[in-house]
Specification:
Blueprint lengths: L6 H20 L7 H31 L3 H23 L8 H30 L2 H17 L14 H20 L5
Helix pairs in contact: 1-2, 1-4, 1-5, 2-3, 2-4, 2-5, 3-4
Length: 186
């Protein structure tokens, strides 16, 4: 969850973790009960990652990158679609006929989002922010991920200041539910 380094290095490491989970998912047969654990694992990672980006990365993009409002709005819209898919998957067992197509859509959406961030957003942010500013953002993102929800909340606010107020409370509730249920301990 926390890798260290500047914001770009932190988020790149998150992207690689999610890709690794996707690779493990793709090696499993459709309906495999172990897919539930992997979907829970990727959900936890994606929700924490998205919340941290929405709290700190996208406001920095709006402030520092030319055309940043348009870029941030597009990325937040991507997150909303991904969170809806995660919410749908959360409610389905792996042997449900809708599970595998939803999982494929999730992987496609996340892969496109990652490529967009890595190909456009990260290079543009890296070219206009000082190393110190990127390091500070990395620290803020790591802190946000440690307090973030672990379950999708599609109706929760996705821009500051409301998201910075709501997310820690939702995160506390989610982590309590995870502890009781054993979710995410694999």
């Amino acid at each position: 969850m926390g890798h260290g380094g500047n914001v770009i290095a932190e988020l790149l490491a998150d992207h690689r973790e999610v890709e690794e989970i996707f690779d493990r998912m793709q090696s499993m047969s459709t309906g495999n009960p172990a897919l539930r654990e992997l979907v829970d694992e990727v959900t936890i990672e994606l929700v924490r990652h998205s919340v941290a980006e929405e709290q700190y990365l996208y406001p920095a993009v709006r402030e520092h990158v030319e055309g940043g409002d348009r870029i941030a709005d597009k990325e937040i819209a991507d997150h909303a679609r991904i969170e809806e898919l995660l919410k749908e998957l959360e409610q389905l067992p792996p042997n449900d006929g809708r599970f595998h197509p939803l999982l494929m859509r999730l992987m496609d959406e996340v892969t496109a989002h990652v490529q967009d961030e890595e190909g456009t957003l990260f290079p543009r942010l890296g070219s206009v922010c000082s190393p110190e500013a990127l390091d500070d953002l990395g620290d803020k993102v790591r802190r946000a991920k440690s307090l973030a929800p672990t379950r999708p909340h599609p109706s929760a606010p996705d821009t500051p200041p409301a998201n910075k107020i709501i997310a820690p409370g939702a995160g506390l509730v989610d982590r309590a539910r995870d502890f009781v249920s054993g979710r995410g301990r694999s």
